[in-house]
Design goal:
The complex is a heterodimer. By secondary structure, chain A is an alpha/beta fold. Chain A has five helices and twelve strands. A six-stranded parallel β-sheet of chain A has the order 1-12-7-4-2-3, with helices on both faces. Chain A has a four-stranded mixed β-sheet with strand order 8-5-6-9. By secondary structure, chain B is α/β, with parallel strands linked by helices. Chain B is built from 23 helices and ten strands. In chain B, helix 9 runs parallel beside helix 10. The chains are: A alpha/beta, B alpha/beta. Chains A and B meet through helix 1, helix 4, strand 9 and strand 10 of A and helix 2, helix 3, helix 4, helix 8 and helix 10 of B.
Chain lengths: ~210, ~475
């Protein structure tokens, strides 16, 4: 008997006499926040900041200058960008644009200062941005290896209140990365320290209108 | 389950030593109290916590009742998405499968995401015997690996170490494994984390094979989920060419929607955060993004035997959040090592004897490693009635009689340790009575759940004192 058949047979024998399980009652809230886009956006801002992300707000006209300033403040000379990143976002940046390519090595990515991406959805109650590998987000590794990540969230379209509202908007067939604040560890006496392996600085730009 | 630590004494013997180790008790007390208070606050933010807890319990129970169907569905979904599924009946088989998969790549080293399942089967040791070096990349696991130590907590395996000890381990051993610790390393947590970053980065960037577990596997879609904080998980899941995930069969959930429950309850219960910094999900392989080869090893190793026990099977609901460890008065004093298993604390006391069977002294004694105070049940996000299972397993341990004389003695000794640990128990009672006026009458938090529950009122003096005055 193969191990597959053995395990399945053991499972069947184990539950043969068990009573039928109850239907799952989804007796919980789908949101804990008032249905008001402005309040939801403020909550996102607050919760992102609470977990040490740096949050900025702007309108489309101000975005190129804001991104240019954030890159300059970091002294970034190279900036990694997904292929589908809207061209105006980096139009004013002084840093050299490096495209996300399949052929680039992890070492090459390690030498880049910053990365700029969009996102698929942002969750206010948990202060989370979710990337799904879309054209303006690129491969998973580009938001992991460089030490500085700037992520642009389009409000209100990409902002939801809660985890139950986020999941139906995401395609499980795509690889997803949920990010809540910068990389952190609590492994030393449960003191939270930001920045271990992922980017130590996460800047989120809330783009309104 | 092959995870019995070699020559492990029974719980009371190991615990007896641990409670006399003041550094250990200090480290543990600080850590468990910190996380305990934070957790209560994170949970109180969700007024529908009781509903989420009940839904989590029901999803897991339903999955377990039809686990055969969901496993077959999962296999089909993962295969359709470009992954390969392997089935392992026990630890040896799982280790053999992983070692062969690694050898087939021609590689001799792997990077690992923290995983209880691979700890449980002793994968690192099995790979070492095949000439393959496994690098642990979670900071706490790294501390344990470099210190030639054993994990003592599900979530924070190095919880028994303080910053001074960690500094010493890094300074002494990092050079034997790769990049040495920076000169003049202090014990500041930020500096220690930076040392780990530098030490591990060279390994991540050259790794060709990654090994992980998973927090959840979605049968409907074939999606695996890993929840973490540091980004070491993302490194191992995306940079290598080959990814091998070893996952217990009970980690299955039926649908994508089910994640909405656990992605709310797991982070708040474990690290007391609204959400952990990084969650990765992947479904098979993705063109031009991440590993080109994905293998899923489905692990039984005692889980189907646990499933067969009508009272004990609820232990398989466990999502490994470790909230029960942090509230347990026995764990806080005895420490994780005393449980002789990778699963310490209240959940370990019911999981280990079921996964491994109760033939050894340590496993026969574990159901007694509890005062049955019930705090573990109260905090459990999937409502595992740990005290109920403990009592049930005590019956099984006691029923072993005859041949099990030696085991019976171990069990009785354990019962004695917990029930009759006068120094610990009496001291606690005295302090509680003296500070009676200061105790809150209600649990903190503003949710409906805490509002409707009162804390028991403390008596004016401990029963022991009253007895002494009035009856002796």
């Amino acid at each position: 008997m193969s191990s597959r058949d053995l395990i399945l047979a053991r499972v069947r024998a184990a539950v043969a006499d068990a009573p039928e399980a109850a239907e799952v009652s989804r007796d919980y809230l789908t949101s804990h926040t008032a249905d008001d886009p402005a309040a939801v956006l403020d909550l996102l801002h607050e919760n992102l900041a609470d977990y040490r992300a740096l949050v900025h707000r702007t309108r489309p006209a101000g975005l190129p200058a804001l991104i240019a300033r954030l890159l300059a403040q970091r002294g970034a000379t190279q900036v990694l960008a997904p292929m589908g990143l809207p061209a105006p976002w980096l139009a004013r940046a002084a840093a050299t644009r490096i495209d996300d390519r399949e052929t680039s090595t992890a070492q090459e990515l390690d030498a880049v200062d910053s990365v700029v991406t969009g996102c698929a959805v942002a969750i206010a109650e948990t202060g989370t941005i979710v990337l799904d590998g879309g054209a303006d987000q690129g491969r998973r590794r580009i938001t992991l290896v460089p030490d500085h990540h700037i992520c642009v969230v389009r409000a209100p379209d990409q902002v939801v209140a809660s985890v139950p509202q986020a999941l139906p908007r995401l395609d499980p067939a795509r690889p997803l990365t949920w990010i809540s604040g910068p990389s952190a560890t609590s492994d030393i006496e449960l003191d939270r320290v930001e920045g271990v392996h992922g980017p130590r600085t996460l800047e989120v730009v809330l783009l309104e209108g | 389950m092959s995870g019995t630590y070699l020559g492990m004494p029974s719980f009371p013997e190991a615990a007896g030593k641990a409670v006399r180790d003041e550094t250990l008790r200090g480290n543990l007390r600080h850590a468990t109290h910190t996380i305990r208070d934070k957790r209560a606050k994170a949970v109180s933010e969700l007024v529908d916590w009781p509903g989420l807890r009940e839904a989590g319990k029901q999803i897991k129970d339903r999955t377990l009742r039809h686990l055969d169907d969901y496993l077959v569905q999962l296999e089909k979904s993962v295969t359709a998405a470009g992954g390969t599924v392997h089935w392992a009946a026990d630890a040896d088989e799982a280790n053999r499968i992983v070692a062969e998969l690694v050898k087939a790549t021609g590689e001799r080293e792997v990077v690992k995401v923290k995983s209880m399942a691979t700890q449980e089967i002793g994968l690192n040791e099995a790979l070492e015997a095949e000439g393959i070096t496994a690098y642990e990349t979670d900071l706490a696991e790294l501390i344990v690996q470099l210190g030639e130590d054993r994990p003592s907590h599900i979530l924070v395996p190095a919880i028994h170490r303080n910053r001074g000890e960690i500094r010493e381990i890094f300074a002494r051993t990092m050079s034997e494994w790769g990049r040495p610790a920076p000169e003049g390393l202090t014990d500041a947590p930020a500096e220690l984390a930076e040392a780990a970053r530098l030490h591990l980065r060279e390994k991540f960037l050259r790794a060709k094979v990654g090994i992980s577990g998973a927090n959840f596997m979605v049968a409907e879609t074939g999606t695996l989920v890993v929840v973490e904080s540091e980004g070491n998980g993302r490194m191992c899941l995306t940079l290598p060419e080959t990814l091998i995930s070893v996952v217990g069969i009970e980690k299955t959930v039926p649908t994508w929607q089910d994640l909405e429950v656990f992605l709310q309850t797991l982070p708040r219960s474990s690290t007391a955060e609204r959400m952990n910094p990084y969650t990765s999900t992947w479904t098979g392989t993705t063109e031009a993004d991440g590993p080109k080869n994905f293998h899923l090893v489905l692990l039984d190793n005692g889980r189907t035997a646990t499933l067969a026990d009508e009272v004990g099977r609820q232990a398989l609901r466990c999502i490994r959040c470790s909230a029960c460890l942090n509230v347990c008065p026995v764990y806080e004093r005895a420490g994780g090592h005393a449980y002789g298993s990778v699963y310490p604390g209240p959940i370990g006391a019911i999981l280990s004897p079921q996964l491994r069977g109760m033939e050894s002294e340590i496993d026969a004694s574990l159901p007694y490693a509890s005062s049955l105070c019930g705090a573990c049940y109260d905090v459990c996000p999937v409502a595992i009635d740990i005290p109920e299972v403990l009592v049930h397993l005590r019956e099984r341990a006691a029923g072993r009689g005859g041949r099990g004389h030696r085991l019976e003695k171990a069990a009785m000794k354990a019962a004695g340790w917990v029930l009759n640990h006068p120094a610990v128990l009496a001291a606690g009672e005295k302090v509680a009575s003296k500070t009676r006026g200061l105790h809150p009458k209600r649990l903190p938090g503003a949710s409906a759940w805490t509002d409707s529950r009162d804390l028991p009122e403390l008596p004016p003096e401990p029963f022991r004192d009253w007895w002494k005055k009035n009856r002796t």
